[in-house]
Amino acid sequence: RLSPNGRYLAYASNENAAFYNIYVMDMRTQQRWQLTDLPANDTTPTWSPDGTEIAFISDRRGEYRIYKMGINGEKLSHLTKGGSDWGPAWSPDGQWIAYNTLQPDPPHKRVYLYIVSADGRKPRRLATAVEKGRSAAWSPDSKKIAFSTWELGIGPKIAIIDVESGKLRRVTLGGRVPGGRVFMKYAPAWSPDGKWIAYVSDNLEVQHKTFLYVVDAAGEERAESIRLTTHLSTNISPAWVPEPFFSVSPSAEKMTTLWGKLKQHR
């Protein structure tokens, strides 16, 4: 992932070992350096808003936990201690990190949405009625979190939770259609002005294909979602960019994408 100022790229690679390690590359000079070097998997690097720290997950203690460190690998901190944790997401104000954790609650294992202060001192469970969840995304004002939730008997949907009050509001309908088929809704991404949420949803007609949608962040469960993509392919990882926007096109030499474009939504 690119740093907030666009100069550095943090990524995980197992190019030199059986385990994944975290690297940072200076995009100007192409110089890179390795931040972790243990017989463990260190992945999912995520930048702090000020670009001085990186949160990541590691199984160096058995289960995956959330850690953070400086961009030169210094000041390593262990932030979480329970369950199996993944998906760290910094709040825009830099005060909190949201993440998912798998808890062995009988009779089924459940995935919960947690937040922890950036110093690791105040872990707090936010969403308790979640069967499966992933892809937490903070609102621009750091007051709300959008996430994918899978409730028993309803199916997956996008919901928003108020961090202070814990009030939950669903902004899309459940992902279950006649015949019992379940289709996923995930990867929410807030627009910079906080008015819209982009997300990914399975194609109802063709399995293993997905579309991108946007929905009014202030809407309720039955608010109409607007489909942005029509190409019959796997459309994933929505991300908002400021104007002027730019296009992404295939390259015969550098196949970073098979197909893709940025679409303006107003």
Structure commentary:
- This protein has 266 residues and is mainly β.
- It has a domain of 138 residues: 6 Propeller (Neuraminidase), CATH 2.120.10.30.
- The protein is built from no helices and 19 strands.
- The strands form 5 sheets. Strands 4-5-6-7 form a 4-stranded antiparallel β-sheet, with no helix packed on it. Strands 8-9-10-11 form a 4-stranded antiparallel β-sheet, with no helix packed on it.
- Strand 14 and strand 15 form a beta hairpin.
- It is globular, with a radius of gyration of 19 Å.
- About 3% of the residues have low confidence.
Short recap of the structure:
With 266 residues, this protein is mainly β.
Main beta sheet, described?
Answer: 4 strands, antiparallel
CATH topology of the domain at 129-266: Neuraminidase
| CATH level 1 name of the domain at 129-266 | Mainly Beta
Dominant shape: globular
Q: Which terms summarize this structure?
A:
Neuraminidase; 266 residues; four-stranded antiparallel beta sheet; single chain; 0% helix; mainly beta
Helix-strand layout with pairing:
Blueprint: E1 8-13, E2 21-26, E3 32-34, E4 42-47, E5 53-61, E6 63-70, E7 77-78, E8 84-90, E9 96-103, E10 110-117, E11 124-127, E12 132-138, E13 144-151, E14 155-162, E15 168-170, E16 185-190, E17 196-202, E18 210-216, E19 226-227
